[in-house]
Design goal:
The structure is a single chain. The chain is mainly alpha-helical. The protein contains 6 helices and 5 strands. Helix 4 packs across helix 5. The longest helix has about 180 residues.
Length: about 350
């Protein structure tokens, strides 16, 4: 700023010096009289008249020149002061303008900062509101999706349960129909087998009866011959020892042996008995069974008990393989009564 001020001040000084020089020249020419003056000589051809100068006039002229110079200096000083004042005013104005500009810039910066802060706050508030709205919408969407999924899951589970129940009912129905068909087939096969076995047993019994009849006739013939021989020999041979021997044999059978054999017969019947879903649990049927010495079933009848159970028990008995009794047990078990209970 000081260099600029010195640059502005140097120009007026130079102008002032130039003006002073011009003023001095003009004043100098003022002191030169006209060609018609008496103090001036005339130039005629090559001759020049002498000029006489009055010292008082020169003094007065000098004083006026000095006064003019002083006045000029005062005027220059006043102009300089005015110039300085103007320069100062310009400097002050520049400073004021600078201060005003700085103030305006500061106010503008503050306003821009406030506007930026306000915009940032508004943006943050808008972003926060948008985020909260988005979060609320997301939560609502997730809730709706969860409710929809739960409803779909419940519907699917219900449909699956209904389908499973229908399939179970169909399977149970099919199983029942299959069991009924199998039972009917088994009953038919058992009846056919029982009929065949009965026919075979009847045939075997008839053959056995015929054989026993022939044996009895043979024994009767032998007994007749023996009697005749005994009569001839005076009763030396007698059948009493055989009878006592037979009695001794019957006395040799224990209740444990009888119960054990009856248990074997029960198991044989149970192995052929069909009891779906324990249908006959707790029920009883009394069976009367006739067998041959080799265990062959000759006949079986029911003597009381649950009618359905007795029907199934008779069929199972006809299919059963009854174990052969020992010779000493046969007379005790050839016709036996059993209280059958399905396992």
């Amino acid at each position: 700023m000081s260099n600029k001020l010195r640059s502005k001040l140097s120009l007026p000084v130079i102008i002032s010096i130039i003006l002073h020089g011009i003023l001095i020249i003009v004043l100098g020419y003022q002191f030169i009289p006209d060609d018609n003056g008496e103090n001036y000589g005339s130039i005629n051809g090559n001759s020049i008249d002498a000029i006489m100068i009055d010292p008082s006039v020169m003094t007065e002229q000098y004083q006026r020149q000095l006064q003019a110079q002083v006045n000029q200096e005062k005027a220059n000083q006043q102009r300089q002061e005015q110039l300085d004042k103007q320069v100062k005013e310009l400097a002050e104005k520049a400073e004021a303008e600078k201060a005003a500009a700085e103030k305006a810039a500061a106010e503008k910066a503050a306003a821009e900062k406030a506007a930026a802060e306000k915009a940032a706050a508004e943006k943050a508030a808008a972003e926060k509101a948008a985020a909260e709205k988005a979060a609320a919408e997301k939560a609502a969407a997730e809730k709706a999706a969860a409710e929809k999924a739960a409803a779909e899951k419940a519907a699917a589970e219900k449909a699956a349960a209904e389908k499973a129940a229908a399939e179970k009912a169909a399977a149970e129905k099919a199983a029942a129909e299959k069991a009924a068909a199998e039972k009917a087939a088994a009953e038919k096969a058992a009846a056919e087998k029982a009929a065949a076995e009965k026919a075979a047993a009847e045939k075997a019994a008839a053959e056995k009866a015929a054989a026993e009849k022939a044996a009895a006739a043979k024994r009767a013939e032998q007994a007749k011959k023996d009697k005749a021989l005994n009569d001839l020999l005076g009763g030396l041979t007698s059948g009493s020892p055989d009878v006592s021997g037979g009695a001794a044999s019957r006395r040799g059978v224990s209740d444990g042996e009888l119960n054990k054999y009856r248990s074997l017969v029960q198991n044989a019947i149970s192995n052929k008995f069909i009891n779906p879903q324990n249908l006959y649990r707790g029920k009883t049927c009394t069976l009367q069974i006739q067998i041959a010495p080799d265990g062959l079933l000759l006949n079986v009848t029911s003597k009381g008990g649950d009618a359905d159970l007795c029907r199934e028990a008779l069929a199972a008995t006809k299919l059963a393989v009854i174990p052969k009794p020992s010779s000493k047990l046969y007379n005790e078990v050839k016709t036996m009564t059993i209280d059958f209970q399905p396992k």
